[in-house]
Amino acid sequence: MSRLFTEEFVRALDPLRITVRQVPGRGRPAEHRSRDRGSGLEFADFRNYVPGDDLRRVDWNVYRRSGRLLMRLFEQPEDLAVYVLVDVSASMFFETPPRADAACQVAGALAAVALNQLDRVDVYPCGAELGAPLRAVRGKAGLRDLLDQLEALGPAGPTGLARALRTFGHKRLRPGLLVIVSDFFDPQGVEAVLAALRGVRQRLLLVQLVIPTDAAPELSGEYQLVDCETGSQVDVVLSPRVLARYQAAYARFNDALRGFVVRRGAAHVRIDAHEPVSAQLRTLFPNGVLAI
Amino acid sequence: MAFFGWPFWAVAGLAATCAAGLAVLHLLQIRRPQMRVVTTLFWSLAMEAAPARALWHRFRHPWTYVLLVGIVVLLALALGRPQLADASARHGGAAVIVLDAGMALAAPLAEGARLDAARAAVLAEAERCDASAGLAVVVLDPTPRVLLGFGEPVCILRRRLEAVACAEAPADRAAGLRLATALVRARRGRVVFVTDRPLLQGGAEPDEAVDTEVVTVGTPGDNAAVLGAVFEPGQADPLRGRVCVQVGYWGAGPRNVRVQLNAGAGLQRDETLEMAPGQTRTAVVEDVPTDGGEFVVRLLGEDTLAADNVGRFLLPRRGAAALAVVGTLPETLRIMLSTDPTMRLVGPTDDHTVMVACADGALEEKVPTLRIVTGGPALAREQAVEATADQTLTAGLSFAGVTYGGNGLPAVADGDAVLLKAGDVALATVRNDATVPRVALAAGLFATEAEISRNPALVVLVTRAVRVLAGWDDGRVSLPAQRVQADARWLEPRDGVKAQIFTGGRDVSDVSRSAPASARGAAVVRPGRSLALFEWLLLVGLGLLLIEAVLHARGRVV
Fold this sequence. Notes:
The structure holds two protein chains of two kinds.
Chain A: H1 7-11, E1 17-19, E2 29-32, E3 37-48, H2 60-66, E4 70-75, E5 81-87, H3 99-116, E6 120-126, E7 134-135, H4 140-151, H5 161-170, E8 177-182, H6 190-198, E9 203-210, H7 212-215, E10 221-227, E11 233-238, H8 240-264, E12 267-272, H9 277-284, E13 289-291
Parallel strand pairs in A: 1-13, 5-6, 5-8, 8-9, 9-12
Antiparallel strand pairs in A: 3-4, 6-7, 10-11
Helix pairs in contact in A: 3-4, 5-6
Chain B: E1 2-3, E2 6-7, H1 8-27, E3 34-37, H2 41-47, H3 63-79, E4 95-100, H4 114-128, E5 135-140, E6 144-148, H5 157-162, H6 173-185, E7 190-195, E8 211-216, E9 223-233, E10 240-250, E11 255-263, E12 266-275, E13 280-289, E14 294-300, E15 310-314, E16 321-327, H7 331-338, E17 343-346, E18 354-358, E19 369-373, E20 383-387, E21 403-404, E22 417-422, E23 425-431, E24 438-442, H8 456-469, E25 477-478, H9 533-553
Parallel strand pairs in B: 4-5, 4-7, 7-8, 16-17, 16-18, 18-19, 19-24
Antiparallel strand pairs in B: 1-2, 5-6, 9-10, 9-25, 10-13, 11-12, 11-14, 14-15, 20-21, 20-22, 22-23, 23-24
């Protein structure tokens, strides 16, 4: 029995769907409308008959009326390329329970939804840099394998989200949906992450993993805070003024993310890593559908 | 090297103590508990200065930064050696400060001596002067010399002043004023004279073309002093005479000064002199022998300074002059010489100072000689005897009515002066310009039948001649002083003339005698000094630096 991905968790994902208005062509047959024309059930268009075409596709009603031989074209539903970039840097494994559990659950859940609708899913773990993708075969057999791989992920070094995104942006991948599951706490700052995101041509879904103490640290007194990844130290005297400045800095961080999402037209959701993920994910799917 | 007047070792010890204390504080500094967090990104931003949203935020700094800025400002100000702005005290233009370091400045005050107050006055004047316009300091100890020249840094003045000690004689204030005036005239500056009395006393008059300011130190007080003594040989017996002691007094009003004069083992004179301020009087002791003994003068009674109330002098040591007789003297002359208590006839081989010779022929004259000469030309008849008026030996002698008809001197040698003559014949001559003085007398002067041989003037002439030949001076003799300092207020009592001690403006009360080189001035008591402004700034800056270091050592993040 998987610790993160129970049967109940996976079963709850079955009715969920990810929809896009149109996927780029040259994909595999699946469920999303595409620019390609094929043997789908939805009528798409007519074209003139060309010798050699399948006569079963000739619209005889139009021939009877007009004497013209026209071919009936049908839509070709294809798959959506879903890329899931899951942050498994050391900081994601720091707390108890670690945010990496929620990240893996979110990544697994979205991958399961995509695989259920025959979409292509590539999961990229990233830590200091972009890792090798965890490819899954299509279907439920591939899902289980993918979920097992996700659960087996361990700390992959310090956070290098901006760097990983730049690397991802340089890849010549089929346009699709990029889901980034992270806390976005890159030591280079949120501006570096957003600058790297501007170089990514995919549709974006940002899943921000948070915990309540991110916004309201439960600290008082004087401490020497040590970064769990970089080891950098900051002497703090937790006065109300300092706490207020911290909260202001955190708010600016969130404002920057939200501002980018709005300008880009991307999707953004905040998941509390200390709360059950499946219930929060349902809010991402109103009426069971996530429309990108 | 000194720092604020403290020796280097004291400053180094204080710095080492402070450093040790700071090291202990550092070891005991508050060590905050460490806490690992998922990220310090937002904490770093929180601890940095917040973006300036309002204008006043731009000027908000941690207190330690303000402290450091304040320290740097204070240290920079201190290096500039600022002066307190005092329009009335600041003097522009060049200035020459003259410090009177004569004997009178050694007078003790309530704290220290007058010289200490004078030093402080010089330093205060130097602080007030505009050093950039030129400042020089002249010291009179007792003759003027430049202590600090124009162009030399003023910071070395204090050290040089501390090396100045009181002279053993009154300062030559007139010469000092002339030097200072000459130095400052070309620069159109002014002279500041630091002394214990007004300038006009003692003959020092400032130049009207130069602005001269007098700063007086010390407070007046009654003081009587033994100034000096002279010995006056007796006319009849030069081996005895009288001692005249000069006593001076200065004070607020008249005073009776009791003087005791002691010679040998006994009290010679005890008298009380009624003295007015600034007056000098003489106390006399008669019939004092010239035995070289000690003569002590004491002034009794209380006055400001007791050091000058005792004077020890040495009487001249004189005995009868030894006259070596060569040849056979005329009897009259022999009697004349042997009855004179200042003369003693000895043989030609005995120690002698004068030779009395009555011999024909050449005679080697190695000592002053009284020569009785025979065989000179005879006078044709009795001639009137004349004495030469311009000679010291015949001064005041009258041979009026005295005639002589015997032999005179054979000839008057070159360089000899005629003392007596009868007609054209010289009877007595003197030779002063030679290495060995000589007086020649015609032997006929002492012939028993000659009238002149019984004349008192001849006796006086012979006596004078012998005494002159013996080197005697019948003038006043200044007695050397041997003062002994018996005043307990002096720090180092020792023999010899001490630096002198007079209060108020009274030149006549200054002892004008130089002391043996071994007897220098008394040790100077250094008065306390206040800190200059730049030193205060430096201290405050260092204090703030220490506070900031303590805060930092305590690990306090302000």
